[in-house]
From TrEMBL:
It comes from the Eukaryota. This is fructose-2,6-bisphosphate 2-phosphatase. Residues 424-453 are annotated as: Disordered. It comes from Cyberlindnera jadinii (strain ATCC 18201 / CBS 1600 / BCRC 20928 / JCM 3617 / NBRC 0987 / NRRL Y-1542). Keywords: ATP-binding, Hydrolase, Kinase, Nucleotide-binding, Transferase. Residues 5-222 form the 6-phosphofructo-2-kinase domain. Residues 426-442 have a biased composition (Polar residues).
Length: 453
């Protein structure tokens, strides 16, 4: 069952049409929106016109983007048409809810064309313009593009940068930004210098307002997010789930070691971070030796196992055989009797994610299921996989969000702990080496598409 059934009941479909010059972070914003909505089970997809154009012209120079270049214009038009056609197909045959059309759409004529198309197909068009004249931000984006865009593969970085700036000039010549005076009847959001100033016009649906709220919270300052489970607990030793137990002796050692691990991971930023914990004893105890500011969140408490709280998996299999089976079959949706499902946890974590987007360096000390959900958001891990990811005890995970991917590093404390990992179809704990792929996601995650428009 989708989270926001409202949009399905009313059959709302939204096309977010990106507007703005190259190097304004449009693809970054597009990818983030798709990741956020997908994490909330709202079917979303990005259609990047640049990727379609590349199939016909893979390494174009700036002249290709001149508004007087007829061959270039034709290829770009065809790419746009192909992207829009695929988008319409996706809406109709795959029940898509939010599509992002990632293109420059710098002229009013282009926008009118898209507007008509959306209206003919009962799709709500929402324009999202990223407008920026802060040279520092633009240069940073240009560096990102020239080092990651397939258009400039194998080219020397200075040549790439100067060609890319010429390309931006070509667009600049015909660019018509959105204005209240001329576009006042459209639904649009205009972000100025990322989110220094935001202009919001005629937002009509709940889902649109959610998207607006989300993009308003994004920032592009460099920062890292650190994730750790609590140290091994007395319940972990006994194989019991839930509860509010103390740390074991080894768990206590991990707590003692944690300040050193954090220092190793954060370097000179070690004092420049805030520690978030749940309200349960084991995360408080794990954080006890950290000197940084601390904040407790009820929303970070472990998945509530309801009637199964305090039982081992073997006991659950014996006492609730049907439940045990159902959970293995669909772990994401299965809700413990009187407790929660992974889906429930994702919903209560939404404010945490929103606040994380706003914040800078944060260390989160929480629990296995909660950590899986947070990790899935940053690494784009699909719902079928996220509840099965292996996140071992006594390991600090460092996430470094970059424009087009998140870099992951795992730092092991070298303090032994039991495994709390349960594979499908057994009540025994521990990872069998035979299957070997359970921790796959932790290492690679799912990289976000490389881009540019
Ligand atoms: C955007 O940033 C530039 C450069 O820092 C500044 O001159 C301009 O006033 C800013 N615009 C807004 C609306 O904040
Ligand atoms: C603290 O971290 C943020 C984000 O990484 C950074 O922008 C800021 O400059 C840092 N402050 C200090 C004092 O290092
Ligand atoms: C100037 C420009 O590139 N505009 C594009 C906006 O998007 C439409 C539809 O995707 C394209 O046709 C245009 O090329």
């Amino acid at each position: 069952m989708p989270v926001y059934t409202v949009s399905h009941v009313q059959n709302i479909r939204i096309c977010v049409i990106m507007v703005g010059l190259p190097a304004r972070g449009k693809s970054f914003i597009s990818q983030k929106i798709v990741r956020y909505l997908s994490w909330l089970s709202i079917k979303a997809k990005c259609f990047n016109v640049g990727n379609y154009r590349r199939q016909a012209a893979s390494h174009p120079t700036a002249d290709f983007f001149d508004s007087q270049n007829e061959d270039g214009l034709k290829i770009r038009e065809e790419a746009a048409t192909a992207a829009v056609n695929d988008m319409m197909k996706w809406f109709n045959s795959e029940d898509g809810v939010v599509a992002i059309l990632d293109a420059t759409n710098t002229t009013r004529q282009r926008r009118d064309w898209l507007l008509r198309l959306c209206r003919e197909n009962s799709i709500e068009p929402m324009f999202l313009e990223s407008w920026c004249n802060d040279e520092k931000i633009i240069m940073k984006n240009i560096v990102d593009v020239k080092t990651t865009s397939p258009d400039y593969e194998g080219l020397d970085p200075d040549t790439a940068a100067s060609d890319f700036m010429k390309r931006i000039d070509k667009y600049q010549e015909i660019y018509e930004p959105l204005t209240i005076e001329q576009d006042g009847d459209l639904t649009f959001v205009k972000l100025i210098n990322v989110s220094d100033q935001v202009i919001i016009n005629r937002i009509e649906t709940y889902l649109e307002s959610r998207i607006v709220y989300y993009v308003m919270n994004l920032h592009i300052r460099p920062r890292c997010i650190y994730l750790s489970r609590h140290g091994e607990s007395m319940y972990n030793l006994e194989g019991k789930i839930g509860g509010d137990a103390d740390l074991s002796e080894r768990g206590f050692k991990y707590a003692q070691k944690l300040p050193e691990l954090v220092k190793q991971a954060a370097g000179d930023q070690v004092d420049n971070l805030t520690v978030w914990t749940s309200t349960l004893i084991r995360t408080q105890q794990t954080a006890q030796f950290l000197q940084q500011d601390k904040l407790q969140w009820k929303a970070l408490d472990e998945l509530d196992a309801g009637a199964c709280d305090g039982l081992t998996y073997e006991e659950i299999e014996k006492q609730f055989p049907q439940d045990f089976k159902e959970r293995d079959e669909n772990k994401y949706e299965y809700r413990y009797r009187g407790g929660e499902s992974y889906r429930d946890v994702v919903i209560r974590l939404e404010p945490i994610i929103m606040e994380l987007e706003r914040q800078e360096n944060i260390l989160i000390i929480t629990h296995q299921a909660v950590l899986r959900c947070i990790y899935a958001y940053f690494m784009n891990v699909p719902q079928e996989e996220s509840p099965w990811m292996s996140i071992p005890l006594h390991t600090l995970i460092k996430l470094e969000p970059r424009a087009y991917q998140t870099i992951v590093q795992r730092i092991k404390a070298d303090i032994p702990a039991v495994s709390t990992y349960k594979e499908k179809g057994t009540s025994q704990l521990g990872e069998s080496h035979a299957s070997g792929n359970s921790s796959k996601n932790l290492i690679t995650g799912a990289p976000i598409d490389k881009k540019d428009g």
